[in-house]
Here is the input.
Amino acid sequence: MKKMLGKKILIPAFAIVILIAGSSFVKSDFFEIAKQIEIFTTLFKELNMNYVDETNPAELMDTAIKNMLDDLDPYTKFLNEQDVETYRINNAGEYSGIGALVRSFKDRLLIVEPYKDYPADKAGLKAGDEIIKIGAISVSDFDNNASELLKGANNTAVEVTFKRQGETKVATITRAAVEVDAVPFYKMVDNKTGYIVLSRFNAKASAQTKEALVDLKEKGAEKIILDLRNNPGGLLSEAINVTNLFVDKGELIVTTKSKVKKFNTEYKTRNKPVDMEIPLVVLVNGSSASASEIVSGGLQDLDRAVVMGARSFGKGLVQRPLKLTYGTQLKVTISRYYTPSGRCIQSLDYWNRDEDGNAVQKTAFKDFKTRNGRKVQDGGGVLPDIEVASAKANELTTALLNNNVIFDYATNYFYKHQLQEVSNFKFSDTDYKEFKTFVSKSDFSYETKTEKTLKAAMTDREEVIFNDAIENDFRTLLLDIEKSKIAALDDYQREIKSKLEDEIVKRYFYREGLYDYYLKNDDAILAATELLDNENKYWDILK
Here is the structure.
């Protein structure tokens, strides 16, 4: 009876929280919100009291919340106390742990990238190591994300059991403070061109970018390449401040528009710029999102920089964390943002979905004008002024990355090859041939959109017109597509080879070595350097 009483107390408290939060945003819908909460409260109480087996009300509520939010967009999330702390750490740029990028799977944790000179690296862990036990706890037996067990106070030790190339090993890691730099690398490309990598928009972004810019100028930089590729975004305020380094005080950078009046805001630069004249190229790709698109889109609209690379991700939605009870939060999409020209670059429409429930991709674009009258478009991310072919994503390369095929090949490559200097690295045609053999022997497979459509047509066929001959044609076409996918390893060799080189170089020389490698070998950086060397062409683009 005591257990049931606990359940009864939980429900009205939760209902009050939602009622208060809901009524503060949509007062005109107060009655409808109250009505739906009352229905839900009654249902939840009766379910917990009468269901044939014992229920876990916390798990049921967690499932209910997550499913409700999944119908909106992927950025509106319920954050429990642990999530709130993770969110804070990501924005602050520092935490205490082992100093490695870790990916969680059902039965193991995979070391994706140990950071140079941090605890995991000092303990000898390498990318590709599979952690199967943390202390006495088996990862496969841990219900939640086991990577949380790796975090802890400075100078505390944790023992990990891991597999490497078929062997089981044990290591003791002493946790330490981990600094997450927004600018992990900057350097002179040549005597007059500086290169800055801005990898995230945490609280350090603008300060570290400014420090890098000033230092490069002191070293003789008369031109700058700002690399925002693979930058997923972060703090809106830092995006404004980074843009402010290159444009005057008082410039409108982004406008947010919402159904809630207080969220309708114009964000302008507030500080004195570092340099308003220095020629600037901004690099973006399909993984440059949110704050990265505010910076690149803003500088493009103001004709302050030439944008190069590939079309950016297309996230034009703004989130804000709202405090709930018991230390939890709701990270909710509150508005859309618009660049100085007035365009919203949101790519996916989460409020209109296809038959499979997927968000609809925007296809109809509107034209806008930059300050100098150049044509730019909304929707679908920021389209570069100059596209770099190897920077574009394609279905095959994405599938190879998502299925860890490129990662696993790089792991095998590392244990088969000795490499002392990054300047000596060359991924040859013979190496690529070995990679194709590796793919063919793996269990890698992916389904194209065309295949999905054909298989759906064969499943939902109309018997009147769908005879054996047509079905055989469909099957023949599917076999031809399968052969084409194998041939595509050659068609997209340049793009795939670039991803392989990235992953392999990191194994030997860490991320710093990868950026050094980029300076001499990356297509986008080479193209940007060439453009900046041609002043007439650079300024002609911005006219």
Notes: The radius of gyration is 26 Å. The first strand starts at residue 77 and ends at 79. The domain at 94-179 is CATH 2.30.42.10 (Pdz3 Domain).
